Amino acid sequence: MGRPRLHDEHLRQRLLEAATDLMAVDGPDFSLRPLVASVGTSTSAVYSLFGSRGELLEAITLRAASSFVDAQRAADSDDPVQRILGLAHAIRRWATENAAMFQVVFGRTNDSPAIAEAREGATEPLLEAVTAATAQGILHGDPQTTTRTIFAGVHGFIALELLGHYPAGQADALFSSLLAAIWRSWATPEHVGAVAA
């Protein structure tokens, strides 16, 4: 039997989870000392498992972005209208269940090329759905612009919801109204009424 590895995958995942929470609050300049203290290890473990602080930040962001995209992929639908609505709801659900990761994906960080690529790909499922709906004559305009405005509205709502700005019990209805308003702004005339508030 070989010697047990001091810095294993289990420790790596615990560090990623704890670092995600710290980064969501303090941004990319969080201190390593509370991180390693929270999981009962040392800074040498960080460098052993990740190589550098920059690679740790990259691993945190890539993990969060991957989880975000997976949640969207799970909400796919053959119906183009329901596909877009399902993605919006999946984004909100994931963000409320993973608030720290949501802050990491879209918060302040020291971007590496890998982080920039992951952030660019974070809304790829929505872009694909919007592009398909545009090709079918359901939505109008440039799919990139449409996707960015839809996501801006959804992201802004989620950010305010996570900060507690919406009255308890009213957030769902407000979100539905937001989606209906966004839909009306991009739907072709014959599809304007496809989404009710």
Q: Per the principal axes of the C-alpha atoms, what is the gross shape? A: elongated
CATH architecture: Orthogonal Bundle
Strand content: under 5%
- Helix content estimate: over 70%
- Briefly, what CATH class? Mainly Alpha
What count of domains describes the coordinates? 1
**Distance N to C terminus:** 63 Å
CATH homologous superfamily (4th level) name:
Tetracycline Repressor, domain 2
Task: Based on the model shown, name its key terms.
70% helix, 197 residues, Tetracycline Repressor, domain 2, mainly alpha
Structural commentary:
The structure is a single chain. The chain is an all-alpha fold and 197 residues long. The chain has one domain (9-194): Tetracycline Repressor, domain 2, CATH 1.10.357.10. Helix content is 70%, strand content 0%. It contains 10 helices and no strands. Helix 4 packs across helix 5 (80-97), helix 4 (53-73) packs across helix 6 (99-106) and helix 4 (53-73) runs parallel beside helix 7. Mean pLDDT is 91; it is low at 1-5.
SSE map:
Layout: H1 9-26, H2 32-39, H3 43-50, H4 53-73, H5 80-97, H6 99-106, H7 113-121, H8 124-135, H9 143-162, H10 171-186
What is this structure, in a nutshell?
Helices cover 70% and strands 0% of the residues. It is mainly α and 197 residues long. The protein has one domain (9-194): Tetracycline Repressor, domain 2 (Orthogonal Bundle), CATH 1.10.357.
